[in-house]
UniProtKB/TrEMBL annotation:
Domain NWD1/2-like winged helix-turn-helix: 360-476
Domain (Orc1-like AAA ATPase): residue spans on this chain: 110-240
Gene field: NWD1
WD repeat residue intervals: 659-700, 701-742, 1176-1217
Protein name (record): NACHT and WD repeat domain containing 1
InterPro entries associated with the record: AAA_16 (IPR041664), NWD1 (IPR043365), NWD1/2-like_WH (IPR057588), P-loop_NTPase (IPR027417), Quinoprotein_ADH-like_sf (IPR011047), WD40/YVTN_repeat-like_dom_sf (IPR015943), WD40_repeat_CS (IPR019775), WD40_rpt (IPR001680)
Keywords: Repeat, WD repeat
Species the sequence originates in: Anser brachyrhynchus
Annotated TM spans: none
Recorded superkingdom: Eukaryota
Amino acid sequence: MKRLLVDRIAFYCEDSEAKQLLSNLKTKLVNHYPKHLKVHALAHGNDSGNPQHKNNNKYLKQLCEQFVAVTKHHVLENLPYQRQISKEPGQLLQELGHHAALCLKNCRFFCGRQNLLDNIFHHIRQNNDKTHTALILYGPPGCGKTALMCKLSKHMQAILGQETVIVTRLLGTSQSSSAIQSLLRDICLQVCFAFDLPPPPTQTKQACSDLVLFLSNLLLTISRCGTHTLVLFLDSVERLLPCDGAHRFHWLPTGCPPKVHIIISISTSEPGILKALQHAVPEAEAHFEVGPLSSEEGEEMLEMLLASDKRRLSPAQWAYIWQSLPGGGQPLLFKLAFCEARNWASYTSSSELAIASTAQEAMHRLCDRLEKSHGTVLVAHVLGYIASSRNGLSDMELKDVLSLDDEVLAEIHHFHLPSSKAILRFPPLHWARLRRDMGECVAERKADGFTLLGFAHRQFVEMVQNRYLSKQDQIKRHFLLADFFRGTWSWGMKKPLTLPHLSRTLNADRKVAPQPLWFSDTVPNLRKLSELPFHLLNAGRIEELKQDVLGNMNWISCKAITSGIQSVVDDFAMCTERINCPELRLVRDTLLLVKPAVGLSIIYTEVLARLLFFVPSYPEVIGKLCQQCLSWFSARPHPVLIPLCGFLQPPGGPLHTTLTGFLKGVTVMALSSDYRLLVAGSQDGSMLVWNMEVIEMLHALPGHSAEVRCVKVFGKGTCAVSAAMDHSLRIWNLISGRVKFVIQDTLIEEQPSHHLHVDERHMIVYASSDTKVNAWHLETAELIFQISAEVSGAWICSAVHSPRLVIMTVSEGGVLSLWNSNTGELRSKRQLLGLQEETPTSSVLLQKQGKMIVGFSRGSLSMISSDGNSLLEKLPGRVCFVVASEDESILAAGFEEYVRVYLADAKGFHRFLAADLEHEGAVHTAAISAGNSIIVTGSQAACIQVWSLSEQGLLTDTLDGMGAPVTHLALYDCTLVSASHGATYLRVWNLVCKQQQKTLARVTDTGCTALSHGGDYVYLTQPEDRQKVIIWDATEGAVCDTLDTSAQVRCLEIAEQTQLLFTGLVSGTVLVFPLNSRQDVACIPPPESQKPVNHMAINKHEKQLAIAYNDLVLVLDITPADPCPVIHRPTYTFYTQIPGALVSRVAVLADYRVLYGMTSGDLFLYDCPQSRVFPLEGHRSQISCLESSHGEHWALSGAEDSLRCLWDLESCQQEHEMCYYKPLYDSIMAGLDDLGDLFQL
């Protein structure tokens, strides 16, 4: 034994030189790392190899303890340093290192393809100094596209210069390169760092559309600098996840500016994605096919692979290979052939040689060989686990999972028991051998901060799924993976294992890694966050999924903080596709409304404030989430604001989505004629195009360098024209997203164009400014004519009436000029009557009538016909806008805080609505629906109001949430788009959402309140204990007493003069507490039905009390007495007799008349002595407040539709109508001024 441990030379002599070198190395290591190394001395003897030896056990125990202690020390020592390092650059450097290492690996065995390389290099050099398209490499799977991309990136600096910046991403090989949002974020960061440019703002990095526009502008900036060339390599774009429209390539710049190149590779195995890319880049000269290797190139590749493995083949074996692959083939096929050939011995007979002729056959042969060496069960399960994982599995995870796999362990211990009965693990040597033999079929990828194993090619995944993963096997693999990531068998939990061949059952600890949600206060378990929901879903463990993941606020907040809100939304979207659960959809929609970059307390606040309304209806998931939020708030050591009602926009409301992408405010917005496309421009010159059918960004239109002033869409949504403050006019192809023509105005001292008109019939675009009108040909961009104005008569408004070939311009002072729209010749010029002192402010063209409506600075509104005639209307203030309906039958003019609506009558201005539409702030814009049923207005008050034109201007809805003054509106069908000069986003609203889903989320009942002694005492109940009435001394600021009731309190009422407190209970009983002697409690028993008290009211003289139940009202007399008033039996009793409606509010008058409102919105006045009922015009929703005046001549009713009505009780007629613009005030109660009949709300 001793001889085996000593180096010897010839004749078994001890090698003294080797002995001395080893001794010197040991001494050097100990001296160099004194803190890290500890010398263990172990006596050598005949039983040194015996692991049961006492000294050996002691040594091994000390060694393991030392290793664990040193490892913990290093981890804890480096944690503070890791916190100091900026997280973002560190992650980016790791990403760059990962792709750089893969590039070097893929270049190792590249050979041939010289002609293809030369053609690509020539194409790049030829387009380096001009605008061009992206370059596309395509071919079938396994053709070597990745290796070719890596080879190109390696030699690109030799072609374009050493200063060239190379950005390479092998898509799908890491988590950041698999999703388009994280891919664009990392590319933007890398390019900004490389060119010393400001990185994208935090808000931009949160949204894909923002990053698309940022990248487009970034490439333009780099091109304009012109100092260095940038080349982007994006390999295997088909491996991008389909989220955010990645496979529709809206993110791909439509044109590469000079000195910027984008090179993309794609597999032909995904025809749909390939077709979309060909649509985005239609130029045939930009597409290069990657074909198979010739037999010579294949031979060269095989020789390189064999040499790297230090193997050689005999002539007979080479002959067999070329017999099997006579015409060459794909590089993947040669690599798989190498995997077979490396196992041949020199003496392997020809009959035993086998080479697959296809990739699928080669992969099946590889599996056959693995099964022969390692057993079918182990191979099937290992490959099945890798294929079933979401992002791959690490080496340690696979060993832990295999240690939990009873079938694998039973196969290993088929003939013998494990060495330990207490601990049972999968033998690591088995995994090491299998991992080595799997070779190139698995590849490493970065995800969740770990290096994970996945399949190198998609063909391997398909083969494993077909061969090893039946439906039942898939469920089993996901079930065990869910157990592992859930931590079911960690922390010493013993899992039984039955060994049927040995008739034994072992209950052993599998020693798998624990899976907490947080490893520490700052280190989350990213692997659990990523994998667990995926496996619970696919294992069919839905209840556990709801409990541990989707209905767990700890999980939601942890993943939102570490991976972003969008990752949580993606998990919910994945689950809701398979689970029909309205609760999960509501939570998902709630998370969509949460801001992208938020803190922990904001997440809990938003979730609670948006979901509280749904708790009674959905207690299983939403109810538990809200309870968890409340528990989290109660445990906070610092003061926090806790939502007590649903005051934020709930899911399913009118706000459909938010469109982002701009860095500055939106200045223009236009819809195509078929309403499919929306084009918008901003203050920084950026333009974006959205597909409104799927609410997805189609193109970023870069080019303008200053504010976009106007935009028009024409050609049935295929083209657009825009004008900007940079004095340029651009005509766009909206199908490709590219600019067709750029028309630059050289007279930059003049005002740029601010009006556009497109005459598609004559193919002319007219662009007008204050001083001129230019006419350009749409197909050639040639100037047809130019009309120049006198300096003293600058034009403010202009319009082109195509059928009559007239251009109409109106200048300051009301001077009208008519021009020929084909030649630009002046036809006539005249002064409009009554407008000499006014300046035009806005205009709209009525094309069908041949008229232009112009608004002026002093409130004039003029209707000007194409023959020069005009009609005049006067408004009270400056006209800020004029809009017309689609059929040109209705006009709306905005002035100050009002909008006035007219019939578009050729004979004059006729009011369509009797009253103007009033707003809280200055009105900026309006839009009329296609059927003229509604008009939508936007104002300085940052809210949008919807008015019914068919109901005489009734306000039907108020949309809050724009967050800035509303300056632009676009309306089509039931969808509204709003924008603002002061906001970088656009809101998309659904105008037909159900009333109960709107922003006016019902305020939860937080308790009852009442006041006495002039407001010195407050009586209230609390939601957590409704059986107690708390008396709060407002002057002292403290609780002075508590009244116990027999049941939950539903309502409170105070008789101030007689000093009585009435408490209506859920049992139907009314308790009466004298305020001066609260212990003397009186009781008004409930009716026989014993239904809960819905509301109570005392008349102004405090002589009558009305108690309302569901469909019953009692009227009782209050008689003065000593020491306290007496309440007799009910004087009158009556039933409401309205099916399906309950009494919600009641008010009683001195002459025994009773007002009562219903949940249906109906309102009645009941005369008890006469037994007569007088219906009042009802509201459209539940009555929420009802009060009478001091003299009982007036009454005020209010409902949840924000409408308040003032009634004359003598005539039972409505006198006034008031509407709150803010739905927040739906439940505000009405009160009275002590001095008279003045209502206070």
